[in-house]
Amino acid sequence: MNDVFQFLKRFEKYTKNTDLFIAFGILAILAVMIIPLPPMLLDISLTFSLAISILILLVSIYTERALDFTSFPSLLLMTTLFRLSLNVATTRLILTHGHEGEKAAGDVIASFANFVVGGNYVIGFIMFAILIVINFMVITKGSGRVAEVAARFTLDAMPGKQMSIDAELNSGHITEAEARKRRKQIEQEADFYGAMDGASKFVRGDAIAGIIITMINIIGGLGIGVIQKGLDVSTAAKYYTMLTIGDGLLAQIPALIISTAAGMIVTRTSNSDKDMGDEVTSQLLVNPRAVMVA
Questions:
Q1: Scanning 43, 160, 187, 205, which has the fewest C-beta atoms within 10 Å of its C-beta?
Q2: What is the C-alpha separation between 139 and 161, in angstroms, rounded?
Q3: For residue range 61-82, what is the model confidence (pLDDT) as tens digits?
Q4: For 27-36, which contacts have Cβ atoms below 8 Å and span 24 or more sequence positions?
């Protein structure tokens, strides 16, 4: 027990240098695009990508105000870059070792493809296309439009809010410290929605890149399998297409989760003092007659 306590204390000491972790993480993401990853390390990275997307979604649900999660645009950029780097790594493994069988790109992709689509790459391709449409056409486009409108209205309302703060300060209703706090909050709100407006473009680009990478993997895999490796068309389609569909689903599901989190963040009202669950429950169940009729 004492050893565990000492380990936790040492881990807490290292986690205080969060800037080093961020810098190391970005360098590692860039390195993944260049250095080939072994299948086991790729499995860990894919699992981490899915876990971090779920974490971001849960934080977005429990966030009371959008300004409580101002690091979200930067997280959106880093997670998008991380997924694209993993796409490059899996593409390299699939095209170089896809002829070896279903587990050439690791156990996670093979297990995911077999579990989700039942080993049928036609069903997998249809599911992949549906996820792309949901993410690109519905969630990402909607949240991007909300962020654009919110940024525009926030910037337009800034002069009026500043004048209101000055009027309250001159009348003595608030102190100088409270006035500075409110001005800073207004600036943070404008910066946040402006950053979200730009960050939503990364998600749309990620969806487009996912489609292109999947097509390249399927066409390139069939060509390599048939021409270079001497496989028949059905075997090459089974190996390369199944691995590509599993890789595409593993990339698009975290992207869909983070896009949902982005939509939840930008649609939260700035004056809310409750998390999403409390707010929805208190407003949805406020009228017993509506609940009884439903």
A1: 160
A2: 31
A3: 888 777 778 888 888 888 888 8
A4: 29/78, 29/81, 29/82, 29/85, 30/85, 32/85, 32/86, 32/88, 32/89, 33/84, 33/85, 33/88, 33/89, 36/89, 36/92, 36/93
pLDDT of 5-36, one tens digit each?
454 455 455 555 667 777 787 888 888 888 88
Q: 150 by DSSP, 3-state: which?
A: helix
* Contact between 17 and 70 (Cβ < 8 Å): no
DSSP string across 68-115: GGTTHHHHHHHHHHHHHHHHHHHHHHHHHHGGG-TTTT-HHHHHHHHH
Query: Contact at 8 Å (CB) between 270 and 54?
Result: no
Nearest to 48 by CA among 16, 86, 7: 86
How do residues 276-292 score in pLDDT, each as one tens digit?
Answer: 667 777 777 777 777 77
289's CB contacts (< 8 A; 6+ apart) are: none
Q: Report angle CA 80, 61, 75 to the nearest 5 degrees.
A: 25
Q: Are 91 and 223 in contact (CB under 8 A)?
A: no
Question: Cα–Cα distance between 236 and 266 in angstroms, integer?
Answer: 44
Hey, what amino acid is at 167?
A: A
Report the C-alpha gap between 73 and 49 in whole angstroms.
Answer: 17
Q: Are 106 and 42 in contact (CB under 8 A)?
A: yes
pLDDT at 197: 76
What are the C-alpha distances in Å from 258 to residues 115, 126, 223?
A: 22, 21, 34
Residue entry with tokens 């306590």: 5
Residues in the chain: 294
Q: Which of 64, 90, 63 is nearest to 75 (CA)?
A: 63
For 104, 109, 237, the CA distances from 39, given in Å and listed in that order, are 8, 10, 21
Instruction: Give the closest residue to 203 by CA, choosing from 254, 269, 268.
Output: 254
